[in-house]
Design a protein that fits this description.
- The C terminus is likely disordered.
- This protein has 6 helices and 5 strands; from the N terminus they run ββαβββααααα.
- Helices cover about 70% and strands about 5% of the residues.
- A hairpin with a 6-residue loop joins β3 and β4.
- The protein folds into 3 domains: about 70 residues, Herpes Virus-1 (2-Layer Sandwich); about 110 residues; about 60 residues, no CATH class.
- By secondary structure, the chain is mostly helical.
- The strands form 2 sheets. A 3-stranded antiparallel sheet has the order 2-1-5, with helices on one face. It has a two-stranded antiparallel ribbon with strand order 3-4.
- The structure holds zinc ion (2 copies).
């Protein structure tokens, strides 16, 4: 930005408005908008709001037109000594340079403050990210531990299921055996009455304590245990009793 394109701004911190029309300039090289200048410099003695300099001199504060008319520009310095003209111009340029420089310093300050804020924000974000990362890692570890626990439970479940299936198979096997045993026993029970009345009678006459026709079946029951053999013999006892009664009747 070239100096001629630069627009002065009110030096009141709370204002900073771009100046046009009339403005108030001070001997301490500050400038204010018409509103702030009128408010501040109507009191005496005046104090510069920007640098707190006392402005008690008659020409320490001046209300000036920033864009004077061509007629004014044509006449204002007329008749003055060249040295005076140059001195006035020099003072005006010093003022201008000071304003541009102050503005640059202010911008640099704002930039550095914004940079500091950005750094603080970045630091804050990094801390937040680290904190979230830690939380995330803790959650990941928890999930891994839960998965492991689940796998262990699954394995235990499968083992129990396998054992249950094994028991089921054993049960089915025993059930089948029991069914075939029942069928066989019933078969004997149904077949027995008619032939036994005669056969048992005949056999009983020869050897009453050892019925030889029962032995093969009896051996099979013995192999299943004493309880089964007991029930078998109890089941057969009435048949023998009936045989006795039958025999007695005869
Ligand atoms: Zn202002
Ligand atoms: Zn000042």
């Amino acid at each position: 930005m070239s100096a001629s394109k630069y627009t002065l701004q009110c030096n009141a911190h709370q204002c900073r408005v771009k100046l046009s029309g009339f403005a108030w300039v001070t001997a301490c090289s500050h400038v204010f908008c018409d509103q702030h200048g009128s408010e501040t410099f109507s009191r005496t003695p005046s104090v510069c709001p920007a640098c707190s300099n006392m402005l008690s001199g008659k020409l320490d504060v001046l209300r000036t037109e920033l864009a004077p008319s061509e007629q004014y520009k044509a006449m204002v310095l007329i008749g003055l000594q060249p040295e005076t003209v140059l001195e006035i111009s020099h003072n005006a340029l010093v003022f201008w340079t000071y304003q541009v420089n102050q503005e640059r310093l202010l911008m640099e300050y704002n930039l550095s403050r914004a940079g500091g804020q950005v750094l603080q924000m970045e630091k804050f974000m990094i801390q937040q990210n680290q904190s979230r990362e830690l939380e995330l890692n803790a959650l990941r570890a928890e999930i891994a531990s839960l998965k492991k626990g689940l796998e262990e439970y699954k394995q235990k479940y499968n083992e129990v299921l396998e054992r249950l299936n094994e028991r089921n198979r054993q049960y089915q096997k025993l059930q089948g055996l029991l069914d075939s045993l029942r069928m066989h026993t019933l078969g004997i029970g149904e077949k027995d009455p008619t032939p036994h009345t005669f056969t048992t009678g005949l056999v009983k006459q020869h050897s009453p304590h050892s019925p030889s026709f029962l032995r093969p079946e009896g051996d099979r029951f013995f192999s299943l245990g004493p309880d089964n053999s007991q029930s078998f013999f109890q089941f057969n006892t009435p048949t023998r009793d009936r045989t006795h009664s039958f025999m007695k009747k005869n």
